[in-house]
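Why do we bother with holo predictions? Because pocket geometry can differ from the apo form. Keep that in mind while you read this record for zinc ion.
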Amino acid sequence: MNTNTNTLPARTEAYAEQVTDVEYDVPVDETPTTRCPYCDRPLRTERLATFHVGVRHPDECSEAERERFDEERDDEEFDLFTFHLKAAVSVFLVYFMFTFIYGLVWAG
Ligand SMILES: [Zn+2]
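The structure, written out:
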C-alpha cells in the first residue's frame, strides 16, 4: 500500500519531537518558573530561560537577552575551567603523594 510510505516520515518526525518534549519539558505537577517569550516553552529557572533563548532564538531575541546569554555562557565556561583546574590539581597531588610514599618506603 502507498499510504504506509507516505505516513512514515511524518510519524518519525512526530516521534523525534516527542523524545525532545519528554527530555526537556517541566513535569506536569511542577509549576514552571518562567516561560520562553518566543515559543512559550515552560522553563524551570531564569538561567535555563536565558540559555534557551540564546540557543533557540538567537535571531529573534533582544540585545539585552543576547548579552545575558553571553555572560551566562562565560560563567559556564569559567565553571568548567575551574573544574578542570581542580581535577588537574587533584591528579597531581595524588601522583605526588604516591611518589612520596614510594620514597618513604624505600628510605625506611
Ligand atoms: Zn523558545
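The chain has one domain: 20-107.
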